[in-house]
Amino acid sequence: MARTVFCQKLQKEAEGLGFQLYPGEIGEKIFNNISKEAWAQWQHKQTMLINEKHLNMMDPEHRTFLEEQMVGFLFENKDVEIEGYRPPEK
């Protein structure tokens, strides 16, 4: 049986993550308050950010930047600014 959480990003009850995917307090907060669907949206944005900004996950500054973007996206309703990326026209 899948666990449900009230997703802070999507503002609705939704299927939660199967396990904590991110370390520490932030990871716990994500596990308890972010749905699988919202996490998938973040993963998509994260991939674009890493590629666009040529982030190196071995670089602590890059990891900090990515974490700030993640927290903003998941909890503060901030969109991720990706230069050079234009959403497809509707």
UniProtKB/TrEMBL annotation:
Q: Which InterPro entries match?
A: Fe_traffick_prot_YggX (IPR007457), Fe_traffick_prot_YggX_sf (IPR036766)
* GO annotation, cellular component aspect: cytosol
Which residue ranges does UniProt annotate as crossing the membrane? none
Keywords, ordered alphabetically: Iron
State if Iron is listed as a keyword: yes
According to the UniProt entry, its GO molecular function terms are: iron ion binding
Question: What NCBIfam families would the database entry show?
Answer: PRK05408.1
Q: Which protein, by its recorded name, is this?
A: Probable Fe(2+)-trafficking protein
Organism of origin: Pseudoalteromonas distincta
